[in-house]
Design goal:
Shape: globular
Distance between the termini: 35 Å
Number of strands: 8
Number of helices: 4
Largest sheet: 8 strands, mixed
Strand order of the largest sheet: 1-2-3-4-5-6-8-7
Strand content: 35-45%
Bound molecules: acetyl coenzyme *A, zinc ion
């Protein structure tokens, strides 16, 4: 088994790349914290395709958060008619008892570094319009709201599409 290096430390919390053995604990965090769930196969494929931006936060050897992303090619959220390489934050969560300590921000910042390693032009995500904590986190980091997606979620709630553009 290989040990992943620490990308960032926030107090006693380490942010590092995800290992295969982290997938079940990451899925458990997702099940506890978000209504959007995914198959085992989907987690495995995201880890295989973009390990640079599938990251976990760990405290005392226990996972307390994760972020997972993919790379897509499509129309820019910034440039009219531009075709670009885009990172997509599929999901991020931190366990409730470990929130408001900067772990979510650390995960997003390190995922940005990860998608920049792959020379992505932009990073985007969807977030529930009612999810003020997450919207504030993304805004703090520099994401801007580009669209409101009507009835994006299964329960009918709208999403904001938020995105950030990179310069190299
Ligand atoms: N109220 C107001 N602003 C908040 C709050 C809050 N309760 N929580 C976070 N923020 C904002 C603030 O701007 C904060 O910066 P500050 O501390 O300097 O004020 C900034 O976010 C960073 O906060 P962190 O402590 O880094 O964030 P945290 O570790 O608490 O994680 C997260 C934030 C991931 C959104 C967490 O609340 C969570 O897991 N929520 C449930 C799951 C979820 O909603 N995930 C996002 C769904 S969208 C998607 O996955 C693409
Ligand atoms: Zn998405």
């Amino acid at each position: 088994m290989t040990m992943q290096v620490a990308l960032r430390e926030i107090g006693n919390c380490v942010i590092r790349r995800c290992d295969l053995s982290d997938l079940i604990p990451a899925m458990e965090i997702n099940l506890k914290t978000l209504p959007e769930h995914y198959s085992d196969y989907f987690y495995e494929s995201l880890l295989a395709e973009l390990p640079e931006a599938f990251l976990v936060a760990e405290i005392d050897k226990k996972l307390v958060g994760y972020i997972m992303c993919k790379i897509e090619y499509g129309f820019s959220n910034f440039k009219k008619l531009g075709f670009v390489k885009k990172g997509h934050v599929v999901s991020i969560a931190v366990l409730p008892e470990h929130r408001k300590k900067g772990i979510g921000e650390g995960l997003v910042q390190e995922a940005i570094a990860g998608v920049k390693l792959k020379k992505s032009d932009e990073l985007y995500l969807e977030v529930r319009c009612s999810n003020n904590e997450a919207v504030r986190l993304y805004e703090k980091i520099g994401f801007v709201t580009k669209q409101r997606l009507k009835a994006y979620y299964r329960d009918g709630e709208d999403a904001y599409l938020m995105a950030i553009e990179f310069a190299y």
